[in-house]
Design a protein that fits this description.
about 375 residues; alpha/beta; Aspartate Aminotransferase, domain 1; Aspartate Aminotransferase, domain 2; seven-stranded mixed β-sheet; 15 strands; globular; binds pyridoxal-5'-phosphate
Length: about 375
Amino acid sequence: MNLFDVYSLFDVTPVRAKGARVWDDKGQEYLDLYGGHAVISVGHSHPDYVAALTDQLGKIGFYSNSVKNPLQEELALKLGKASGYEDYSLFLDNSGAESNENAMKLASFHTGKDRIVAFRKSFHGRTSGAVAVTDNPKIVSAFNSHHKVSFCDLNDAEAVENELLKGDVAGVIIEGIQGCGGINLPTAEFMQTLQSLCRKHGAMLILDEVQSGYGRTGKFFAHQWYGIRPDIITMGKGIANGFPCGGILISPEFKAVKGMLGTTFGGNYLAMAAANAVLDIITKENLIDNALKVGEYLLANIPASEKIKEVRGKGLMIGIEFNEPVSEIRKKLLFEKHIFTGVAGTDMVRLLAPLCITIDDAKHFIEALKDVLS
Ligand SMILES: Cc1ncc(COP(=O)(O)O)c(C=O)c1O
């Protein structure tokens, strides 16, 4: 049997990793500034994380959501404290797309309405509703295209209000910082207006923090830079450092009804052991402050070059937009300098490093980039 061939692969086979370093099957070491697509938050194979998962596996690996699982409550408590959302509730699922799916479903249950407003250049995942609110027709099938969705430009409050005025909008979904669409930051003024507009028109504000959350931008959630409190916050990626896990934070205005949301695997023991360990490590090692410090260093020191159009981002969510396609630059960084980077579109190198990278790692990247661009 062959694998269904949907991924473009680099010819690299990682077999071991530690912190912000990865080694391939030939023993070559790499600096990881991609974090397996923003997933590695506390660093690869952190000893506390490995111990927590190993220990849990020796006790009980899985049972269903029909019995009590104190690890879920432990996570809710820790997450409430770490994020500043102690009065919100937590629903646990398995991925970013599923979190967005649940958030939009909840907004629709709550309001009785069925349209979602999303933004151009958005990415929210691959499941039916999540892909329908993703602004990329290439990955939306005819089956997915029946959802009622309207797209507005980022930072265009008037366009959003025109949609809300139609009276059928259940929710507005927006990324804390657009990731796959090219590290596009909404303005604080726009986000505050968006929150007021949603409240005024009875639509739920859904913040997709799957990529921008969990400390990546130097605050627990990127939207906390804008001084707003959304109705629902969606999470994934860094939440369990690579163990599949997602979740949503739900404001107290929502009433839980038995059976309205559900999942087989969401909140399972192993995911909870991983997610609890992640929060413990983030706190113990001050990784959110580190993300801000190293991110600011990178943003300030990425070299000026006629090839670079703009550098933008916050904390360790950084886009380097070039005046040309970046595939050769990324290949050189990977195969000559042994540095993993991400991409957005064709012209942007996207950095999504583990939150534990050091200033020395950042310096190493900057020197490598200068070499590659010279
Ligand atoms: C902002 C955002 N939302 C949702 C998703 C989907 O997450 P997952 O691939 O875990 O379903 C992603 C994945 O890249 C993302 O960047």
